[in-house]
Structure formats: C-alpha cells, structure tokens
C-alpha cells in the first residue's frame, strides 16, 4: 500500500531559503516571493501549490 507523502511547509518563504534551488523542481518556474514546501525525506524545494497538487495525484513509496 502506498503511503501518503509527508509535506514540510512550515510557512517557509522562497526568499528565506539558503539553498541552490532557485526554481521549483515540478513546474521549473523560478521562485518569487511565495510559500514553498518540500518532502520530509528530500532536500528539493517546490512551489507549495505544485507539491500539494502532486501529493493529491501521485503515489509515494
């Protein structure tokens, strides 16, 4: 049975991130001042809207 992804949003804002990621790994759009999210076991950062949509339609092992 596939588990649901654990999302880490914690109200992070893209402008506060200190990482190499300057774009969402789902839509590939550059981050602007927006809320972002990541998976619990992943260092990639995504647009909050993208990661929420992904979590609703994709299986996670």
UniProtKB/TrEMBL annotation:
Pfam families linked to this entry: zf-RING_UBOX (PF13445)
PROSITE patterns in the cross-refs: ZF_RING_1, ZF_RING_2
Sorted UniProt keywords: Metal-binding, Zinc, Zinc-finger
Superkingdom of origin organism: Eukaryota
GO MF, any single term: zinc ion binding
RING-type domain segment(s): 24-57
Annotated Gene3D superfamilies: Zinc/RING finger domain, C3HC4 (zinc finger) (3.30.40.10)
Protein's name according to its UniProt entry: RING-type domain-containing protein
Organism: Oreochromis aureus (Israeli tilapia)
